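Sharing a chain and its predicted structure for anyone who wants a worked example. Both blocks are below, sequence first, tokens second.
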Amino acid sequence: MRFRHPDGSTVHLAYCTNVHPAETLDGVLAQLRDHCEPVRRRLGRDRLGIGLWLAKDAAHALVTDPSALRGLRCELDRRGLEVVTLNGFPYEGFGAEEVKYRVYTPDWADPERLEHTTSLARVLAGLLPDDVTDGSISTLPLAWRTACDERRAETARTALRTLAERLDALQELTGRSIRVALEPEPGCVVETTRDAIAPLTAIAHDRVGICVDTCHLATSFEDPHTALDDLTRAGVPVVKSQLSAALHAEQPHLPEVREALAAFAEPRFLHQTRTSTAAGLRGTDDLDEALSGDALPDAGPWRAHFHVPLHAAPAAPLTSTLPVLKFVLTRLVGGPHPLTRHLEVETYTWQALPPELRPRGRAQLADGIAAELTLARDLLTDLGLKELP
């Protein structure tokens, strides 16, 4: 979906396909048929943007076989789909029964992360629509915190500088400008936007910026206004933003609130949980850990890294951080010029919701994704952007 900003530039809105498990190119092609095109049809649009997730095997198949890449591009066109951004965070196995800490490997100190992201950039350069020259790739924020000492951190920064040089060469070769975006996430070396400033200014290359995920920002209780101001002052570009909402519990000391939260503790994904105290941010690596005894202070609200559907906040006594998303979006695209032109709805946890909230079958999932995109579209048009055909 494309929108015209009042300054005349185009802002792209997509939804991320990491919600649909696929490890191979055949699996990606099936996604387009079974999920992405049905969402587009529900929205009544001729064109739908998707934030494509390509696992290791799918990316390798595309970067080593030009005919396969052309075939994917043709299939996108045939189904009324377009790609300007990739989700390069998960490497493989994101549809496994248990993902948890595995999503953070390989990290940026591992040469395989550089090679995979380089492959993604080459693929994206071949997938961009003919009238689009700029693409983006979101990636993990260096490493999970326990896997990174200063030596590995410097290795990671060196790898990102190498990637930036490769992206420069790619633009010279193809005319397509691809940028990569570190995505701060609770529990990682770069947990917050503030944590991102030092490594990104050390890398000092405009090919490498930040992806503002509004669920992650809210989970860490960051003040959105301060966060975006700090990025602007530091000259860190917002390459893309993932529009997502976290799980919010206002009174976690109450037994009924604990019971409601427990329904969201599940075995597949990590749901880092945070609370803001007078002594600073406190947290646990997972929601079930927070619910066990006194692991987390409960005098103030809790927020959990659980991407809840944008259009359907959990029932009381829980809610979501959608107001944070709305504030961030206003700052990103509501001013005289957009701070980013790539927006991606990223609710990958549909099948991890409590059983009674999960979509039953492809049709219900498509309905839900279309409803999220409708909400995002309405927020953009309310900010003065005009939806394009």
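Comments welcome. The two ends are 8 Å apart (CA to CA).
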